[in-house]
Each structure stands twice: as C-alpha cells, then as structure tokens.
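Structure tokens please, single chain.
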Amino acid sequence: MGVGTAINVATVLAGGGIGTLAGGRFPPKMRDTAMHAIGIVTLLVGVQNFLKYQNPLVPLISVIVGLVVGEWVDIDSWLRRLGDGLEARFSKGTSQVSRAFVTTSLLFCVGPLTILGSIEDGLRGDYSLLALKSVLDGIAALSFSSVLGWGVMLSAGTVLVVQGSITLGAGFVQEVVTKGMISATTATGGILIFGLGLGLLNLKEVRVANMLPALLVAPLLVSIMPALRL
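Here you go.
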C-alpha cells in the first residue's frame, strides 16, 4: 500500500528536475511558445473533464459555493505566500515558484485517476492506475518546469499528502464515494483546470486556489441531489 503514490512523487521530482535543468537552455521565445502550448492543452484538459458529467448545474453550484468559502479563507493568498517564501529563500534568479506550485499541484491532484488509483492502491495494493498517472505527471512536470522552473517539484509534496491520505483512508472512502461523486468532482475540477489555462495564456488571472473547496462540495451535492431534484 502506498507504492503508487511513492512512484508518482518520484516521477514528478524527476520530471521537474530534468525540466528545470533543460529549461534554462531554451531561448525566451521558445519558452514563451512552450507556455502557450501548455496553456492551450490545459484548457482542453479542463473542457474534457467538465464534459464527463451530464448535469452542468452540479459543478456550477459547487464552484460558486466553494468559491465563497475559498474567498473567505483566502486559500490563494496562503499558497502564494508559501511559494513566495520558498522563492525568496532558495531562488537566486528569476523564478515563478508560486505559480508553478499552485498550477501543477492542482493539475496533478484533480482527476479520476487520483481518486480511483489511490483507492485501488489502498484496498488491494494495485497501483497500476497510479503508475499510469505517474508517467503522465512526470511528462507534464518536465514540460511545466522547463518553462516555470523548480517550483513544479514542490507539487510532489501535494501529491504525497492528497494521494497518501486517500490511500490510507481507502476503506472508508470506498463505502462512501460513488461513481457519480467521482464524475462530479472531475467535472468541477475541469472548471478549475480551465481557469489555470486562462492564467497560463495570460488571458485572465483566476484565483483558482480559492475554488478548491468546490472539490468537496461536488460529492456532497451529488449525495443530496435526490432530495434537491437536480
């Protein structure tokens, strides 16, 4: 149990490390073009995840409710202060630690493979889904770090906490979580990922981190849908 998460953390660190070393050798124009490509792909991933759930009201209401909570707590400021503090302490040159940390943490932890893979790993020791996710995350970490720098590697800690928690609590989660809840959470996460894409393309800076509570609201909303008749 936990092997899948360990592999995932290792691939994010490896991909992030390689990308950071290689990215410094790219000319500015190439890095800008790579950022645009990453932003476009991020938008498409968000749309793809959103379309996996048939009722758009659920992710919409989840994001609105989650945003109210997130803005009140101001999660975005907490995460950015953490990233800025690490940047000030360890970075010697131009860096985007906060942006890299927040963006990749959300990308690597929002999606069906995170939930389903962690549950399978926790219950049966089957880490095949997380192994697949690890490969995808490693490639993504390499791409992002080549543009955004070493801050991408910090998201390995987020992966460890999120997936590790689900794996350890898999017995309880299996009894509570349904496929509908996972689909709704994935669709809600798609909205957050789309917001990240807008920021990467410099079209609109969205405080996506303040929407994170929506990922908890979505499954709760699905559980009470019959009563609400949504």
